[in-house]
Amino acid sequence: MKIFRLFGKILLGLLALALALFLFVAISLKIQNVTNGEIVSSGQVRKFLVYVPPSYDPARPAPLVISIHGYAEWPAHQRDQSNWNELADEHGFIVVYPAGTGFPARWRASGAKSVDVAFISDLIDHLQGVYNIDPTRIYANGLSNGGGMSYVLGCQLSERIAAIGSVSGAYLFPLEECNPASPVPMLALHGTVDPIVPYEGGYSDYFKVTFPDVPAWIERRAAKNNCAGTPETLPPSGSISGVRYTGCAEDAEVVFYTIAGGGHSWPGGPGLPEWIAGTTSQEIDATAVLWGFFKRHTLRP
Fold it and tell me: What is the pLDDT of residue 113?
């Protein structure tokens, strides 16, 4: 009987410890998952984190950058990984970090037009009602699942999105089903040793889904924009190489940077734990490169 009582005490202790750890993690996530706005979209309350820089002038239309978190992440995490707010301070644009749904939080970026696309469109409407946003300079970008969502927005919301960007993007929406009203420029970055979304495609250690071979997918994505001829090779810098597809319909260029040895993270940012995501390159600042790309593109009438 003493053994059973001892075992019971140990079990209760372990359960108490597990509960304490669960509450600690839940509270930590609640603290970190800070948002400052919400709307109702498709009958559901959807949240977001918006940043308006001190340099914002309501008398002048400002660009809007939509930056989308990855699978199992959250808006404030995307803010801290990408450092978009710092560039917003310098250039006077508004940044919004929308929140996905579910647990872990995610974006429905692999099927037909989803409520997430409707949410982003409703979010743009909401922000345009509050701030003086230039409708010709709205841009979307994201990490991983968020990069895949940005690609989907380029397919299904091309009448509102001037250009898209993707870092370590998970491109699961079929290209043959991507039929935008007009071609959307795209810039992507991907590491060659990404353990989560493999550079050469196929399954990863984390997800048993068939990811596309990224360089081949980018080539096909450029073909969607009717880009002509052999892509231009960009000057290499350390572990960074790139190609640029030009001669595209409506100047909707496609640019792709390869990061040799790079992992599944935002280059130039603080990075995710290396044992999960691999190496975070500091040889290129993905946010600065994306903003430089976005500035070259406005939505055509």
Answer: 74
What does the pLDDT read at residue 112?
Answer: 65
- CA max distance for the chain: 82
Amino acid at 245: Y
Residue with structure tokens 């450092």? 83
β-bridge partners, 141: 67, 165
Partner residues linked to 226 by β-bridges? none
Closest by alpha carbon to 75, among 41, 40, 38?
Answer: 38
- 66 touches 45 (CB < 8 A): no
Specify the fold of 33-294: Rossmann fold (3.40.50)
**CB < 8 Å & 24+ apart, contacts of 114-117:** 114/152, 115/41, 115/42, 115/44, 116/149, 116/152, 117/152, 117/153, 117/156, 117/157
Q: Which tens digits make up the pLDDT trace of 33-86?
A: 688 999 999 999 999 999 999 999 999 999 999 999 999 999 999 999 999 999
pTM for this prediction: 0.89
How far is Cα 213 from Cα 84, in angstroms, rounded to an integer?
Answer: 28
> Which residue, 31, 37, 29, 184, is CA-closest to 119?
37
Q: pLDDT digits over 79-95, tens only?
A: 999 999 999 999 999 99
User: Rounded CA gap, 269 and 78, in Å?
Assistant: 10
